[in-house]
From TrEMBL:
InterPro entries: TMEM175-like. Keywords: Ion channel, Ion transport, Membrane, Potassium, Potassium channel, Potassium transport, Transmembrane, Transmembrane helix, Transport. The keyword Transmembrane helix applies. Its main location: membrane. The chain crosses the membrane at residues 39-57, 77-96, 103-122, 162-180. This is TMEM175 family protein. Pfam families: TMEM175. It catalyses: K(+)(in) = K(+)(out). It is found in: Membrane. Belongs to the TMEM175 family. It is a multi-pass membrane protein.
Length: 190
């Protein structure tokens, strides 16, 4: 299979995920700015999720950019990642609808952790195909950002049952860590 087809399919799924998320935010019935107040939690959860989907789209682009060939393991690993990403709208809606309560925040973190693990698996499959001396493998190195992100997601999940502020902060910190594009990979392909 051509990697262009894999990229196009993934881009389409990610675009649909973002579209579904924004459709969850309903127009208020009133015509005053005060009528927007109940939408604040929904909007905040949407913004964070939009950033996460954007981060995965960006890193997915760089990861596949360096790919020379596609095999079945990469196809299934990519679908695994898309599965977890497709769950983001559900948890985003639940978090926004219930003002960042314990169970919705825990589910949000579980889904983010699932996305992170799925991305790590996809990355491993790509690196295995590219070989031990690939420029991409050298650029990724030990992937400290990926490991720190997974740990913060676990802390966010556990803390969601004790302190929603800490939980939310963990998820925001992970997004901030990844918000800046990964210069290691960018340098290899520029």
């Amino acid at each position: 299979m051509n990697k262009g087809r894999l990229e196009a399919f993934s881009d389409g799924v990610l675009a649909i995920i973002i579209t579904i998320m924004i459709l969850e935010i309903k127009v208020p019935h009133g015509n005053e700015f005060a009528d927007l107040k109940p939408l604040i939690p929904k909007f905040l959860s949407y913004v964070l999720s939009f950033i996460y989907v954007g981060i995965y789209w960006n890193n997915h682009h760089y990861l596949l950019h360096g790919l020379s060939k596609v095999n079945g393991k990469i196809l299934w690993s990519n679908l695994h990642l898309l599965f977890w990403l497709s769950l983001i709208p559900v948890s985003t809606g639940w978090v926004g609808e219930h003002n960042f309560e314990k169970a919705p925040l825990a589910l949000y973190g579980i889904i983010l952790l699932g996305c992170a693990v799925a991305y790590i698996i996809l990355q491993k499959m790509v690196l295995d195909v590219e070989g031990i001396n690939s420029p991409l493998r050298k650029a990724i190195g030990k992937d400290v950002k990926g490991k720190v992100s997974a740990v913060l997601n676990v802390i966010g999940i556990v803390s969601s049952f004790y302190n929603q502020w800490i939980s939310g902060a963990c998820y925001v910190i992970v997004a901030l860590i990844w918000l800046v594009p990964d210069k290691r990979i960018e340098r290899v392909f520029s």
